[in-house]
């Protein structure tokens, strides 16, 4: 939420580079309290300025004794807000406040039986014996003054500790992970009994506060919106058009790497839906020239992202008076692009097009109202804003478009093949999803596809068609089940659906003689091939 105010009740997760960091924020939001993530080493004054209702210190991969172990500003424990630490968060709380952490001989990974000790505000209402999820080697060996031990496991003498008087609580285990049987009860104890919060946050009441804060930020200035027609930028468009109406210009860059019929569809749907200025920029030739012969995926992403900024800047200069560029950056984009704003320790998986640095001579102030949200939350926000289902439930499509689904250099011939094959994949799997929706009444039911598309590898193979030898391209079908793109399973599609997709592609798309199905999940693969 770069330019939008935080709701009055908000819990800040200090990120120590945990694989569970986002999950904690997510669990808190699911319980009806807004939560966002901030770098672990943010100064206490900066954190105080965000007026948090509570802090949660996440886990992390480091040892507190490692040379460059992430640390926390000790003053965060004096802000007068309740603090809860998990795993590394417990250890850093202990060492910062005068306790000790020791290396244990044997780590503890997975489910572990926990026994409670004495009274505990955090564990109130949970059984004396219960199962928790552990993932650690170091452990607290001596609690700081004023703290009591509230549970143990066979290998962990301080599985949880608290100093109720100072409102400081911590667990060595991970309450945010579903395998911790009563983790959700503990989070509820913390949020509602200890912090006195009221579970009033929801997507619906968020809309009003986001609109108000966009109005306040923008004032009388003009904003251009980087509109791709996907759910994220459309939701930002809906928010902005509600907030600032005619001060908004929606800019759609046609880079020639869009799916079949997509540019026309985006323009029609968006201009029907909203009474805003819409600019369609035909940049196909410029992109074709820039991408000529480029093979390496990160280089493609950089070229495409940089040119996007230049195109927007040109429109802004023509429009005049534009201070802001709004875009639909979402939380996973930031995580996978190297955690620009969480400041976390995540590494760069791929540079999302909207997080490429500005080239020289280009500058905008950014408005990214969705940068703390996951895809399924954004869909709920879109529905709360009254966007039609056909926009809200569009499958994700990456900004760099088909350029990152054509392995190797992009060419007009490859683009034509991929557009045609992809159109068949979407037609068949849209129909498959629609059948499942009819049967189950659920949009993301078990086995429905979340994202599906065709990929064109840079190889050819031999086939036989009509008694003739062919030497032509294979197409790869990618279809995954997911809810937020952070993890994904390959879709267990029925054989008859696979057979129809394969049969149609080979029969209807010239230049293709084979179809393969990608049966890899994320991780270890990613959803896109580049
Ligand atoms: P990966 O391939 O990293 O993708 O598993 C996760 C989700 O993000 C989409 N994606 C992008 N979206 N700009 C975007 O707007 C990008 O540069 C980009 N790269 C990947 C991808 O389609 C999937 O839904």
Can you describe what's shown?
The protein has 530 residues and is of the alpha/beta class. It has 3 domains: 11-194, Class I glutamine amidotransferase (GATase) domain (Rossmann fold, 3-Layer(aba) Sandwich), CATH 3.40.50; 203-393, Rossmann fold (3-Layer(aba) Sandwich); 412-518, GMP Synthetase, Chain A, domain 3, CATH 3.30.300.10. It has helices at residues 21-30, 44-49, 88-96, 183-194, 203-218, 231-244, 262-273, 284-291, 297-319, 331-336, 375-384, 389-392, 412-440, 495-508; strands at 10-15, 34-39, 54-57, 83-86, 100-116, 129-142, 148-152, 160-163, 168-171, 222-226, 248-254, 277-282, 322-326, 365-367, 451-455, 461-465, 468-481, 489-490, 512-517. Helix 6 (231-244) packs parallel to helix 11. It is globular and about 80 Å long. Residues 336, 349-350, 352-353, 396, 398-400, 451, 485, 522, 526-528 line the site of xanthosine-5'-monophosphate.
As a percent range, the share of helical residues equals 25-40%
List of distinct ligands in this structure: xanthosine-5'-monophosphate
Work out the count of structural domains: 3
CATH topology of the largest domain: Rossmann fold
Provide the CATH superfamily of the largest domain: HUPs
| Continuous helix count | 14
Flag low-confidence runs. none
Describe the main β-sheet briefly. Answer: 9 strands, mixed
State the strand order across the main sheet: 2-1-3-4-9-8-7-5-6
Number of strands: 19
Q: Report the end-to-end length measured between terminal Cα atoms.
A: 28 Å
Overall mean confidence score, pLDDT: 91
